[in-house]
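Action item from last week, closing it out:
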Amino acid sequence: MGTNGAVRPSVMCMTTTTRPRTPDRTRAVRWGLGDASFWLALALIASSVIALPVVQLAIAKPLVIEALSYLLVWTFLLGGVLVASYARGRRSLVADFGLRFTWIDLLWGLGTGFVLRGVSSLIETTIYGARPTGSVVVDAGEIPLSATIALTAAGVLVAPVIEELFFRGLVLRAVEQSTRASRRTATVMGIGVSALVFSVVHMLQLPVGIAMVAVGVSTLIAGVALGTLAALTGRLGGAIVAHMAFNATALVGVG
């Protein structure tokens, strides 16, 4: 109240509160086929170095050579996914590549993985005339048990996540984005291209011969199935679970 008896309006101090910022998922996506091709080339070059006779002679043990080859490929594929998302994308593997899981993914994934292993075994046995060439043979006498366990875990748990992020995440979606056609046509092309690249990469891990053909056919079919699952659900959860089941059922213990 003032000295003249009039009531003055009270002056309230307004304070502005700053809300914590959330990651921006709306930023423009700049990754595409160029990113996928670049990192895939690096992965194949690194794998080719391991395949050189002088390198294999120095390492000597075939299983160790194979493990190093796959680890190099996985490293570059994962590097490509992370660089694409955090430097040229939305900085979220969920927003960029659909890395999400739901309970239904477990059901669809396990079912798809077991069916694919059955189909793969039939194809490889028919072509190769022996035990499926895609199987992972674990020989405890060749490397220490701890290393064997680590390689097995990597093949069943780590590889499916990395490979699905790259092939069904980066490659498939990059093809979709670069294809000037209807959404359905773009998706079909993305599934086909990602499956073909997936098959070729696995073929190049094997020596030239009938085994390469057998694995090429089986992984091509697997790639189409995994890509279809990812495209229909809009996420990678089911494809990752299916890939894990597919790899796990390939394990053959050798005493």
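Closing note: Strands lie at 136-139, 251-254.
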